[in-house]
Amino acid sequence: MTAAAKLPEPAATDCVLGLDVGGTSTRVVAIDLAGNRLASGHSGGGNPVSHGAANSVRNVSDAIAQVLVSVAPERVRAVVMGIAGITNLRNDAGEPMFDPVWREAGLTCPVRLVADAVVAFAAGTAAPSGTVLIAGTGAIATAIDDHRLAGRRSDGYGWLLGDLGSGFWLGREAVSASLRYLDDIGPGGPMVDSVIKALTPQSHSPATNHIIQEVMSVEPVRLSRFAPLVTQAAGDGDPVAENLISQAAGHLVRSIELIHTDPARPVVLAGSLAGGDTPVSHKVLSALSARQPDLVVHKAIDGAAGAAWLAARMVMSDAESLRRLHEVFVPART
């Protein structure tokens, strides 16, 4: 949805909507142009690839409806939604998939759809260009130029072909380590014990074949559920878990270095593993600091707020005002 005529200058009481649409959840925030958070909404995952078009549209619509209970649609000057796979977001008739959402919500303002990586980068910095690493269930590093995808990426190939250092990767490696222990060819410890316990019913003795069957009976990506067992054990000093954390961080740092060619530009870490307070994040930060002491690294905590700031850029032109507004929308996290 675009505006044909130039919009009037915004008032501080006008607001913008930012949406962070992922495979696990959909988050929406309304923030006025003075930086006040007015309302937020939350619903299920909105990624059409993992949830299907109908469920995706419904969840995005539900989250927006929660916000518009207390924010009149006519106050909204712009909307930005971050979502993966934006080039394919059309319905069977060729119409942009989410256009009915905006119409039914009564939103007549400009709406921009951007890649989830663009929103993650904006959630970490007001700089226009740099590199963002997203590491959660999956993992990808990608370059950002002028608040857009630059076309340079490392990994993000999915569980079968890549996502090295991701939550899936950690979970798979943890289960593999547990199988080696049961076959008496690898060390045990708290992490291995916790994985075996999670995969072995109380009525069974731990057995390699049973664990393999349990893992093979569900979607491979669900191996990511064991990643917290790795990070917890590593935090408690388990050497097997610590080794996996170091390997994961090494993969992620390598992905960043393959993409990040300009040391004057910032790096943003996002996702539950890289952007959170985790052993993986700590290792990545430490490695980057050791290799490039002057590198500026930020963490992206609130993707929806990053999307809202990008929406504010659609209606405001003063660079200094936008910089100050970014500090209010998404306070710096390092």
Please describe the topology of this protein.
Layout: E1 15-21, E2 25-32, E3 37-44, H1 48-51, H2 53-68, E4 76-83, H3 99-105, E5 111-114, H4 116-122, E6 130-135, E7 139-145, E8 148-155, H5 167-182, H6 190-199, H7 208-216, H8 227-235, H9 239-259, E9 267-270, H10 271-274, H11 279-291, E10 297-299, H12 303-315, H13 319-329
Parallel strand pairs: 1-4, 4-5, 6-9, 9-10
Antiparallel strand pairs: 1-2, 2-3, 6-7, 7-8
Helix pairs in contact: 4-12, 5-6, 5-8, 5-9, 6-8, 8-9, 9-11, 12-13
Polypeptide structure, described:
The protein has helices spanning 48-51, 53-68, 99-105, 116-122, 167-182, 190-199, 208-216, 227-235, 239-259, 271-274, 279-291, 303-315, 319-329; strands at 15-21, 25-32, 37-44, 76-83, 111-114, 130-135, 139-145, 148-155, 267-270, 297-299. The protein has 334 residues and is an alpha/beta fold. The protein has two domains: 15-124 and 301-329, Nucleotidyltransferase, domain 5, CATH 3.30.420; 127-299, Nucleotidyltransferase, domain 5. The strands form two sheets. Strands 3-2-1-4-5 form a five-stranded mixed beta sheet. Helix 4 packs across helix 12, helix 5 (167-182) crosses helix 6 and helix 8 crosses helix 9 (239-259).
Observed structural traits:
334 residues; Nucleotidyltransferase, domain 5; 2 domains; five-stranded mixed β-sheet; globular
If helices are DSSP runs of H or I spanning 4 or more residues, what is the number of helices?
13
What's the total count of β strands? 10
**Global morphology:** globular
Classified by CATH, the class of the largest domain is: Alpha Beta
Sequence stretches where pLDDT stays below 50 over 5 or more residues: 1-7
